[in-house]
Design goal:
The chain has 695 residues and is an alpha+beta fold. The protein has 25 helices and 12 strands. Strands 1, 2, 3, 4 and 5 form a 5-stranded antiparallel sheet that branches. Helix 21 packs parallel to helix 24. The chain is elongated, with a radius of gyration of 31 Å. It starts with 13 loop residues before the first helix and ends with a helix.
Length: 695
């Protein structure tokens, strides 16, 4: 097919001039593009410095852990946020007093035991009450957990674990699980990375096959792939550089490959197809063909790229979450893809000229005439316009019906249940929660800073004891741990006497227990209390408990905490999950306003219409709502859970935001590309119906 638009309509316009410039300086533009890619991709040599904290210091739960880390690291005690993993071991007949057992476990952990800043607490080295926290015997056999402690940052611990986790193996007569903390976190990262590679190995060849089918020749099919490679390499380099100067998580890389390749192929396909149309008009006039390609398809790509970038930039508003990193990666990928498509690709097309269609015609390719009143898509569009209500009403019913489940959505953060049910680290933690419910992973940590006062003075002891006793009346609390309640059932006077008794009047065992409590729970003027909560840390009940705890603290803190910098803050995964939900909720209005208003303005500038941008927004919201509904239908209600090997659970709170920003941007992308061709046809014919059909 050849273009039916007269080039004289576009002469003098900015994008037409850009196309002429690209043709006239095609070699320089191509060299500049390649050098720019080499320069940006060379930034990968710096090595990434991915952030683990996501810049979320404003969240109460994170502030609480920061207070704990600062206090307990100075004391040399065990901070609740220290890094490491648990090595859970089971045997049907042996126990950890057996030489065979001990040798097998030591051999399994030999690599970690030889490393600096790593210590291992073996189950058989524990005594007294502490031993019950490390061992458990059932009718099936003997269980023991061994704690591998890494005295380093979260990032360093994950890096160390990633290097050596495969070395942890045990004899087949035993069963063992590497789990908890660092193991769980690494498993999430590792699975995401593996799934991403798997997806790219499938999508890459599939994309090339589809492009070959569409274009018919290998040269034309390879051009979009080439732009995708340039885009991903450049965006990766810039993102890695940014990770060294600001907070960026490794998830930015995931969205670069996901979005970068997709939009690069999308934009390139649009430009290559238009160039081939223009070349069929006059194979000798490459300059005009290049200029027309940039003036039409290039202009559409420009507005489309900005539209997609606007959607992705919406994630930048969600501070104190992982979303800004995704926004950074996605926006970079789309922007770079747009620039390469507007400059580098037209320069290559200009150099190729008629040779874009040379090469062996692929036998399985096909060609659909897509313009003119006799084209397949024109006939479909005409049929729809002839019976608009017959198409619109069923479509609306389907979209609205698909979106209904979203009204019953429950939100939380992903925890170990997001891993496959047969995952080793998840299974291990499930066993631990069953065998040692007192060490449940669902716990609220109440961190108290007395601002210079001694937590162990009599007044503070009494107030803390009264508060803990009042709290454990809550049925949602399984157990409480803290220095003001050494044992369940101890009254206020007994607790005061327990801490006031001189060491010489206590047995060695009592002294050891008291010092253990002091070391674990008190560091200068900071202490903390652990409340083991029923259910999952991401459940609504756990969130309600944390919210109630925070709401009721004022009366207690007014009596107990008198210092200017004293505080009582709630941490733990349930608290962090709730804080993140609140952070997303707080930033949602401004993000939506930015995306919607910016998109309306952009489409208005492109087509000079008020109704079309509003129509586009409404259509896209309907389609996104249907996607949200299916998200609940599958992942919360569990339809297809067995097939896809996952556990139904509340929706990860960031997923709808990510979906909205990506899907809204991409759906508007296709809207803009179609509108650009429709608007071009309308300028050419002045006939609205014909413009829609041909466009």
């Amino acid at each position: 097919m050849e273009s039916s638009t007269d080039p004289r309509m576009f002469e003098g316009r900015a994008f037409y001039k850009l196309g002429e410039f690209t043709h006239d300086h095609r070699k320089k533009v191509l060299v500049f593009g390649i050098l720019a890619c080499l320069g940006m991709s060379s930034l990968m040599m710096m090595g990434p410095d991915w952030s683990e904290a996501w810049g979320e210091g404003d969240l109460e739960s994170v502030e609480a852990l920061s207070i704990m880390d600062n206090a307990f690291s100075e004391e040399g005690g065990n901070s609740e946020s220290e890094q490491g993993f648990v090595y859970l071991v089971f045997h049907e007949s042996l126990n950890d007093s057996s030489d065979v057992w001990q040798q097998e476990v030591q051999d399994s952990l030999s690599v970690f035991s030889s490393l600096d800043d790593v210590s291992i607490e073996y189950s058989w080295d524990t005594e007294g009450e502490e031993r019950s926290e490390f061992t458990f015997e059932t009718e099936e056999g003997f269980w023991a957990r061994n704690l591998v402690v890494m005295n380093m940052s979260r990032k360093e611990a994950k890096s160390l674990y990633s290097e050596h986790w495969e070395s942890v193996e045990i004899d087949s007569d035993f069963e063992a699980w590497r789990t908890d903390k660092t193991a769980i976190e690494y498993t999430f990262d590792h699975r995401i990375e593996k799934d991403l590679i798997k997806a790219e190995l499938v999508s890459g060849p599939l994309s090339l096959i589809i492009l070959a089918i569409v274009f018919g020749t290998l040269i034309a099919a390879l051009l979009p792939v080439g732009v995708g490679v340039l885009t991903v390499l450049s965006a990766m380099g810039v993102t890695i550089w940014l990770s060294n100067v600001t907070d960026v998580t490794q998830y930015a890389v995931n969205i670069i490959s996901l979005i970068g390749i997709g939009v690069s192929i999308d934009y390139s396909l649009f430009l290559v197809n238009r160039f081939r149309e223009e070349m069929e008009r006059d194979p000798e006039d490459i300059r005009t063909a290049t200029a027309m390609t940039v003036a039409t398809a290039g202009k559409a790509v420009f507005f489309s790229g900005i539209t997609v970038a606007i959607g992705l930039m919406g994630m930048l508003f969600f501070t104190n979450t992982s979303l800004p990193s995704l926004g950074i990666g996605g926006t970079l990928a789309v922007t770079i893809a747009m620039i390469y498509s507007l400059l580098v690709l037209p320069s290559v097309l200009s150099l190729l000229g008629p040779r874009i269609n040379t090469g062996r015609k692929l036998p399985f390719s096909f060609k659909i005439e897509s313009n003119g009143e006799d084209g397949v898509w024109s006939k479909i569009a005409t049929t729809v316009m002839d019976r608009p209500w017959a198409v619109l009403i069923p479509t609306l019913i389907i979209l609205l019906g698909a979106g209904l489940p979203f009204f019953q959505a429950e939100f939380s953060l992903a925890n170990r249940d997001a891993l496959p049910p047969d995952d080793e680290s998840r299974l291990g933690l499930d066993h631990i929660d069953t065998l040692w419910p007192q060490s449940t992973s669902n716990a609220a940590l109440v961190v108290i800073d007395f601002d210079g006062e001694d937590p162990l003075n009599e007044s503070n002891l009494r107030q803390m004891h009264r508060w803990m006793v009042s709290q454990i009346e809550d049925d949602r609390i399984n157990e409480a741990f803290g220095y003001a309640l050494p044992q369940m059932g101890m009254n206020e006077s007994t607790v005061v006497q327990y801490w006031a008794t001189p060491a010489e009047y206590l047995t060695p065992e009592q002294n050891a227990t008291r010092e253990y409590l002091r070391e674990q729970f008190v560091a200068d003027d900071v202490t903390y209390v652990i409340y083991a909560i029923d259910g999952s840390s991401t459940s609504k009940d756990s969130h309600d408990f944390v919210a109630d705890l925070r709401e009721d603290r004022d009366d207690f803190t007014a009596v107990l905490l008198t210092g200017d910098d004293s505080s009582l803050k709630v941490a733990g995964f349930a608290a962090y999950s709730l804080d993140t939900l609140w952070a997303i909720q707080d930033h949602l209005p401004i993000a939506l306003a930015f995306i919607l208003i910016a998109t309306i303005v952009l489409i208005f500038i492109q087509v000079r219409s008020i109704l079309i941008p509003i129509k586009a927004i409404v259509m896209n919201i309907l389609s996104i709502s249907a996607s949200f509904g299916m998200l609940v239908f599958v992942f919360q209600w569990g339809y297809g859970a067995d097939l896809l090997n996952f556990t139904p659970q509340p929706i990860e709170a960031t997923n709808p935001v990510i979906m909205f920003c990506i899907v809204f941007g991409l759906s508007m992308d296709y809207e803009v590309l179609m509108l650009s061709r429709i608007h071009e046809e309308w300028e050419r014919t002045g006939d609205n119906t014909l413009a829609v059909a041909n466009g």
